[in-house]
Every structure is written in C-alpha cells, then in structure tokens.
Amino acid sequence: MTKRSIGPRTLLYPHPDLIIGTYGTDGRPDVMVAAWGGICSSSPPAVAVSVQKARQTYENLIERREFTISIPSADYVKEADYFGIVSGRDTDKFAATNLTPVKGDLVDAPYVGEFPVVLECRLLQTVEIGVHTQFIGEILDVKVDEGVFGEDGKPDIEKIRPFAYDSMRQEYYGFSGSLAKAFSAGKGFKQ
Question: How many Cβ atoms from other residues are within 10 Å of residue 51's Cβ?
C-alpha cells in the first residue's frame, strides 16, 4: 500500500488520556489532562508525561516533585476534556466538575476519586524537549477500584473503559474489545 507523507507531527495512535494531579504552592488540588505520556520503564516501574512550561501543573511538579495519574472511564470524558481547556491558576477544576480530590497515600498529590485507576508517582528526573518538559515518575503504587477487577483478579480494561485521544481529529475514542492474546497470537510465525 502506498503511504502519503504528512510531515513531522505529534501523531501516535492512540494517545492516552492521562489526568495529572498535583497540589499548587497554595495547597489547592489541581489536575490537567495530558496525552503526551506513557510507561517508560519496567524496573523501576515508571511513567513519563510531557508538560509545557506555561502550565500551572509544570510549576506544581517542579515545586512538589510528586504527582498522580488518574485514568478516567468513558463516563467522564467531558470532565477530562474540561481539565485540558481551563487553567488551574484561576479555576478550581474539582469544584467546577463536582469531582472529588483525594490525597494520595504515598505522595503529596491528589487524585480524582471517581476515576477507576490511579498511579502514585515520585519524580525521578526531567528531560527538556523543545517546548515541553518530560517528567519521569517512579510508580510507587497503583490503585484500582474494586468494581473493575475481572474474575481472574486483574484489572479489566472493558470494565475500566478508558478512552484515547486522536490528536489529528481532536476527538476521543473508546475501545471495542480484545483482538488477540499478547505474546501468543504471533507464535505461528516462529520457526
């Protein structure tokens, strides 16, 4: 199949919808949505998120060096979108959306109580990349709502119902179910 070049862009499918939770210098809980992020190490378990210097969350991360990442379910797509279109400098995003800030058990950062998956992170390092700073955090704990575990005792993505961001169309998309078993589906190609 012929490919058409569309030039260098911030394009990756899918972009996760990550809600970064921090406390401001005044102690007020704040959240922002970030699509530039993902797992970056398995040992230690770590996640990276990229934040522009102009964001309130950037200042909070530099000051506090701890953060959470909340994974919203599709039920909260409007709230998650709102977190990305207003600034924590002049808006209490939790009050505006009627969501609950919960103080992390292991870090000095809030998470969104209604969202089914939470990562508590301590800053390991930062990397300057153009207009963004990549914050790499060690995952100290993962908290998962009891109601989203499967019969096998593991978190069930179909119960969590996360969604992804399409940066080209600026739209959110859900997932439609399992396609194949990882580390198994491709075994037929082994010689």
Answer: 25
What average pLDDT does this structure show over 87-94?
92
pTM to 2 decimal places: 0.94
Confidence at residue 179, expressed as pLDDT on a 0 to 100 scale: 85
Q: Cis peptide leading into 8, omega within 30 of 0?
A: no
| CATH C-level class of 15-189 | mainly beta
Question: CA 39 → CA 69, 102, 119, 131, 172, distances in Å?
Answer: 12, 23, 11, 21, 20
Helices marked H in 17-166: 56-64, 77-85, 93-97, 157-160
Cα 1 to Cα 51: distance, rounded to the nearest angstrom? 36
Instruction: Return the domain boundaries, the chain.
Output: 15-189
What band does 37 get if pLDDT is binned at 50, 70 and 90?
A: very high
Backbone angles phi, psi at 25, to 5 degrees: -65, -25
